[in-house]
Every structure is written in C-alpha cells, then in structure tokens.
Amino acid sequence: MTWFEALFVLVAGVGAGTINAVVGSGTLLTFPALLAVGIPPVLANVSNSVGLSPGTAAGAIGYRRELEGQRGRMIRLVPASLVGGVVGAVLLLTLPDSAFHAVVPVLILLGCVLVAFQPWLSKWISVPTHTHRGAWWVIPAVFLTGVYGGYFGAAQGVLLMAILGLGLDANLQRMNALKNVLATFVNTVAAILFVIVADVDWLAAALIAVGSTIGGFVGARYGRRLPPIALRCLIVVIGVVAIVTMLF
User: Fold this and answer.
1) Using alpha carbons only, what angle is made at residue 1 by residues 217 and 95, rounded to the nearest 5 degrees?
2) Which of 105, 174, 208, 244 can bridge 13 by disulfide, Cβ–Cβ 3.0-4.6 Å?
3) Does position 114 have pLDDT exceeding 50, yes or no?
4) Contacts of 229 (CB under 8 A, 6+ apart)
C-alpha cells in the first residue's frame, strides 16, 4: 500500500466512523476504499470489521448521555446482538467466496436503498406506539440484524434504527445511542472471531481503526449539525461504486 493509498483508507475510516455514529452505513465508505487499493473482497470485509470496531465504540461513548435510563433495554437486546454477530461472522468464514461475491452486491444495494429512503423510515419510526419493554419481535429482529452485521454490516445502523424506532417507545436520539451500543457489540464480537481464526490485513485494519475512532467522536459531537441529505447522497454514490467494482 502506497502512502497515498494509506491516506485514502485513513480518510475513509474517519468518514465511516462519523457516519456510523450519526446514521450508520460507514462500511459503504471503507469497504469500497479497501477494494480500490487492491485488497480482495473477503479479506477486505474481515479487515474492515476489525478496523471499524473501535470507531463504533467511540460513537457509543460519545452518545452516553442519551443512554441514561436504557439499562434494561441494553440487558435485553445486547445478548441478541452478540449471538447474531457470532452467527454472521461464522457464515462469512464458512460460506464459499463465491457466495460472498454473489451476496455482497445485493447487500450493498439494500444498504443504498435503506439510506436513500431514510426520511420515510424516520417518519415511521418517530411514532411511539409500544411500551418501555418494546414489541415482542424486537429481540429476534435485533438478532437477525446482528447476523447481517457480523456477515457484512453495511446499513446495519439504519436497520437497527428502523427496528428500535418501530418497536420501542423513545425519541430518535435515544434510539441512535442504543443503536450505537448494539452495533458495537456486533462488530466487536465479529472482530474478535476474525482475529482468532481468519486472515487480517493489519495495516488496513489499523488505518481504519484510527480513522473510525476519530470519526466516531466527531460524529457524536457534531454529526447532528450535518445535512442528512448530504450524508445519504455520499453513501449512495460510494455504494454504487462498490457494486460496480465487485461486478465488473
């Protein structure tokens, strides 16, 4: 990796950490960046998961004030995220590379669509209709999102925001804080598994880790001031680039 490529990956990490703290879908920045510097897709995905873990944790720490009073929710939902993250990581490691090549463009496209339609999702999830404990389907839905996050993770945050907002009674800022915690556990447990049993491009992972940690704190502090439409457009553009790169 050249110095320019290393800087490119680092900057992508900063952007991903910022976006993950505010919206989710930072993978749509870092994953194409790793592909662009010549890292094979599966190795890029593993290294990306390892690198983004500290940044996701930084975003969760930055939103710690919004987590006050949500201990019960975390106790109920974190185990579902942990188990889902392990299952998703195991699927990534056990399924053939051909399955990854076939599935990931679809997942990226799904992520782009979810991000593009986030204003409509926000309208749906802003209506509190359930008790403090939440709807019965929230835990299994969080588990399935954890599986998705452990396998790839693009737009994991958007999926979690939709699930939590529809199934729980709380405002969006508190849901975003809870989303950051759940995504942190998914990414961390998957990263630990990858470090133990998979190959990791440690330079790429380190660059993303440094960048995403900086971005996580920046996103938690300043992210609400950024125009949402600008973030959505950027993610969609990068996602389309990733799809084209993988297919052609």
Assistant:
1) 80
2) 208
3) yes
4) none
Per the rule left: phi > 0, alpha: psi between -120 and 50, beta: everything else, 170 is beta
d(CA 32, CA 105): 11
Q: How far apart are the C-alpha atoms of 174 and 161, rounded to whole Å?
A: 10
How far is Cα 208 from Cα 202, in angstroms, rounded to an integer? 10
The percent of residues in the chain predicted with pLDDT above 90, rounded, is 46
* 131 pLDDT higher than 60: no
SS3 for the chain is CCHHHHHHHHHHHHHHHHHHHHCCCCHHHHHHHHHHCCCCHHHHHHHHHHHHHHHHHHHHHHCHHHHCCCHHHHHHHHHHHHHHHHHHHHHHHHCCHHHHHHHHHHHHHHHHHHHHCHHHHHHHHCCCCCCCCCCCCHHHHHHHHHHHHHHCCCCHHHHHHHHHHHHCCCCHHHHHHHHHHHHHHHHHHHHHHHHHHCCCCHHHHHHHHHHHHHHHHHHHHHHHHCCHHHHHHHHHHHHHHHHHHHHC
The whole-model pTM stands at 0.83
Structure tokens at 196: 């133990």
What is the average pLDDT score of the chain? 85
pLDDT at 240 over 70: yes
